[in-house]
C-alpha cells in the first residue's frame, strides 16, 4: 500500500486519525464518502479483532507470529474491497429515474453479516456474472478467516444462510450460488 493511496478522498492515515478521535467531532465529509466509510468499517473491525486477540490468553510468540500476517491481510482486504466497484441497476417503475447499488455496498453488507458471526472475519466477496443485467444470475464467493476454537463448518454455514437471506432482500440480481470458503484458520481464539 502506498502512502498516497486513497479511500475516497482520504488517506488511510487520515481515516485512522479520525477513528483515534472516536469520530469526534463528526466529519460529514468522511462519513458521507462511501469508500471512506467502507474503509472506516474495516479499520474498526481490525481494531476490535486486534484488541480481542490481545485480550486472549495466548503466548506472546504466537500472537507476534500470527498478528503480523493477519493484519497485513486485513489491510490488503481494505484496499481491495473499499472501492465501490460496478454499478448494479435496481429496477424501478419510473422510467425517468436511474437507481443503482454498488458492488461495494453489497460487499459491505456481506462483511457486516460476517462481523455478526463469532470467530469469523470476511476477507473477500466476489460477484461472478454480469451484475449489470437486471435480474441476471450471479454466483457469490465469500472468503473468510475463522478461529480454530469452534466448529468451522457451522460458522461458515451460518454466514452463507445470512448472505442468502440478505441478498434475496437487497440485491437486484438473482443469486445462482453462494460459496463460503475458509481461506485461513487462525489460532488464538479470535478472528
Jot down its keywords.
191 residues; alpha+beta; 3-stranded mixed sheet; two-stranded antiparallel sheet; 24% strand
What does this structure look like?
The chain is of the alpha+beta class. It is 47% helix and 24% strand. It contains 6 helices and 7 strands. It has a 3-stranded mixed beta sheet with strand order 5-6-7. A two-stranded antiparallel ribbon has the order 1-2. The chain is flat. The protein starts with 5 loop residues before the first strand and ends in a 5-residue tail after the last strand.
Brief sketch in words of this structure:
By secondary structure, this protein is an alpha+beta fold.
Q: Beta-strand percentage?
A: 15-25%
Give the overall form: flat
| Mean pLDDT across every amino acid position | 79
Distance between the termini: 22 Å
Describe the SSE topology.
Elements: E1 6-7, E2 10-11, H1 12-20, H2 28-31, H3 34-55, H4 60-81, E3 87-90, E4 99-102, H5 103-115, E5 120-128, E6 137-147, H6 152-170, E7 174-186
Parallel strand pairs: 6-7
Antiparallel strand pairs: 1-2, 3-4, 5-6
